[in-house]
């Protein structure tokens, strides 16, 4: 069955095995390349240890560092089960994401359309009221069942039905300026859709508070 937004179709088990072999090689090559780049970047930063940057340059460097995301989730226990993986993107964990009054993680609409929806099969309908069942992994590889769906009335794409339990288990609290990195991948053995999340505390990058006249949801 074809994926949404894709021209490719599954043909045979042999093709699937070949594709999986290529995915393993691609992931291993990507990991090697990222490690090499990380070592090079660490050497450059170490050489700048005693260099005083101008404020504008420091802000630029911070922005450059923040935009570099691992191509696949850097979670050791997932290395053997990650099949096809989406491009990663960042999400600021807002008040509503980490509030006990809500039970959902809202995801950037443009990022979901660009990176996640093309990986879904035709029968995986996020616009259905029931959504689709997914497994979400935290930074330690612990799994939590959730629902991925679209809220048509608010045009939000969300992970819910398990999100509150998930963020509570990791001690995440609102107003603590967390930035999450989000990946969606197909499980190598079951082909089921999965999400992986890591995060960091970064108050420097936190967006400015919105004015009271701005009623748009985050």
UniProtKB/TrEMBL annotation:
Biased composition regions of type Polar residues, renumbered to the chain: 13-29
TM regions (residue ranges): none
Cited CDD domains: B3_DNA
SUPFAM superfamilies in the record: DNA-binding pseudobarrel domain (SSF101936)
Entry annotated with the keyword Nucleus: yes
GO cellular component term of the entry, any: nucleus
Principal location listed in the UniProt entry: nucleus
InterPro entries associated with the record: At2g31720-like, B3_DNA-bd, DNA-bd_pseudobarrel_sf
Protein name: B3 domain-containing protein
Lineage: Eukaryota, Viridiplantae, Streptophyta, Embryophyta, Tracheophyta
């Amino acid at each position: 069955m074809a994926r949404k937004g894709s021209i490719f179709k599954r043909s045979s088990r042999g093709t699937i095995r070949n594709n999986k072999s290529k995915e393993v090689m691609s992931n291993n090559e990507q990991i090697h390349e990222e490690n090499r780049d990380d070592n090079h970047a660490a050497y450059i930063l170490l050489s700048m240890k005693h260099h005083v940057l101008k404020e504008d340059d420091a802000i630029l460097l911070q922005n450059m560092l923040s935009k570099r995301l691992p191509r696949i989730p850097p979670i050791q226990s997932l290395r053997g089960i990650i099949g096809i993986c989406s491009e990663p993107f960042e999400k600021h964990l807002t008040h509503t994401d980490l509030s006990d009054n809500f039970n959902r993680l809202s995801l950037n609409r443009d990022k979901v359309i660009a990176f996640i929806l093309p990986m879904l099969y035709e029968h995986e309908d996020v616009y259905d009221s029931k959504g689709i069942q997914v497994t979400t992994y935290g930074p330690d590889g612990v799994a939590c069942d959730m629902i991925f769906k679209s809220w048509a009335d608010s045009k939000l794409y969300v992970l819910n039905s398990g999100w509150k339990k998930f963020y509570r288990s990791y001690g995440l609290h609102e107003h603590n300026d967390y930035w999450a990195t989000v990946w969606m991948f197909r499980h190598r053995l079951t082909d089921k859709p999965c999400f992986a999340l890591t995060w960091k505390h970064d108050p420097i990058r936190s967006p400015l508070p919105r004015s009271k006249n701005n009623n748009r949801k985050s």
